[in-house]
């Protein structure tokens, strides 16, 4: 299994440009999430999905869109990039089910710089 | 809303000694899970250990153990016999069972192991 993959690894954008960060998982996990990590801080939740066709907002959703057309893929779209969106973006997935050790598997991250 | 507090921005430990990284949490939910992740300078998020709120015994994973004190709402990570490779950022996180498997992270502790 490849686990959680993210592309690209690095990206530089100009203010106002749009782009899509790709995320895919091959573990048949129901739950997928996008987090951002700013310098010196923990990860903050942007958007998440509990299954194909179902998405919801997290703590910091403004300026981002998501969709979940398949179980495997969960792309994150930046509509009009701003310097405040300079960050490292992590995609994560986890299985559903009842309580228990629901470890989140993280992708390697995408380092985004907005000039 | 749930919250994680890590009060030690940076910690130093001598190689082969044990170190405790503090984590306190705030939630009114009874069912939750506590996670510790390691983030080396390369940036990936590495799962270390998990503790469920109803687990009666403290979790252990090799050199990692979790000192879980439910009444005090603390979940400290203990690393025994520190190694140079343990130098990294460490994040504590909480997952509410009733949530959509989303993690709330603390701000992290930067651990440096000295030779």
Keywords:
heterodimer, A: 115 residues, mainly beta, seven-stranded mixed sheet, four-stranded antiparallel sheet, 49% strand, globular, B: 115 residues, six-stranded mixed sheet, 12 strands, 53% strand
Write up this protein.
The complex is a heterodimer of chains A (115) and B (115). Helix content of chain A is 0%, strand content 49%. With 115 residues, chain A is mainly β. Chain A is globular, with a radius of gyration of 14 Å. In chain B, strands 2, 5, 6, 10, 11 and 12 form a 6-stranded mixed beta sheet that branches. A 4-stranded antiparallel beta sheet of chain B has the order 3-9-8-7, with no helix packed on it. Chain B has a two-stranded antiparallel ribbon with strand order 1-4. In chain B, a hairpin with a 6-residue loop joins β5 and β6 (46-52).
Number of helices of chain A: 0
Estimate the strand proportion of chain B. Answer: over 45%
- Shape label of chain B: globular
Number of strands of chain A: 11
Largest sheet of chain A: 7 strands, mixed
SSE pattern of chain B, N- to C-terminal: EEEEEEEEEEEE
Describe the secondary structure blueprint for this structure.
The complex is a heterodimer of chains A (115) and B (115).
Chain A (H helix, E strand, L loop, with lengths): L3 E4 L2 E4 L5 E7 L5 E7 L5 E9 L2 E4 L6 E3 L9 E3 L8 E8 L10 E2 L3 E5 L1
Parallel strand pairs in A: 2-11
Antiparallel strand pairs in A: 1-3, 3-8, 4-5, 4-9, 5-6, 7-8, 9-10, 9-11
Chain B lengths: L2 E3 L4 E5 L4 E3 L2 E3 L5 E8 L6 E7 L7 E2 L2 E6 L4 E6 L8 E9 L6 E3 L3 E6 L1
Parallel strand pairs in B: 2-12
Antiparallel strand pairs in B: 1-4, 3-9, 5-6, 5-10, 7-8, 8-9, 10-11, 10-12
């Amino acid at each position: 299994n490849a686990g959680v993959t993210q592309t690209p690894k690095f990206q530089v954008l100009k203010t106002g440009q749009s782009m899509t960060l790709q995320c895919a998982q091959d573990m048949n996990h129901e739950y997928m999430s996008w987090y951002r990590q700013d310098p010196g801080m923990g990860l903050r939740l942007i958007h998440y999905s509990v299954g194909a066709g179902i998405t919801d907002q997290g703590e910091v959703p403004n300026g981002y869109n998501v969709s979940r057309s398949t179980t495997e893929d969960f792309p994150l779209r930046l509509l009009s990039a701003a310097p405040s969106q300079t960050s490292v973006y992590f995609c994560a997935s986890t299985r559903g089910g009842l309580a228990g050790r629901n470890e989140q598997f993280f992708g390697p991250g995408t380092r985004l710089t907005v000039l | 809303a749930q919250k994680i507090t890590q009060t030690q921005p940076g910690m130093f430990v001598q190689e082969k000694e044990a170190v405790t990284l503090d984590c306190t949490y705030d939630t009114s939910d009874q069912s939750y899970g506590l996670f510790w992740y390691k983030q080396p300078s390369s940036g990936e998020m590495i799962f270390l250990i998990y503790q469920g709120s109803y687990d009666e015994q403290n979790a252990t994973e090799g050199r990692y153990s979790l000192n879980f004190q439910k009444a005090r709402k603390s979940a400290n990570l203990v690393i025994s016999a520190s190694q140079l490779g343990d130098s990294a950022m460490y994040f504590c996180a909480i997952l509410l069972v009733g949530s959509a498997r989303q993690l709330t992270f603390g701000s992290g502790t930067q651990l440096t192991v000295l030779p």
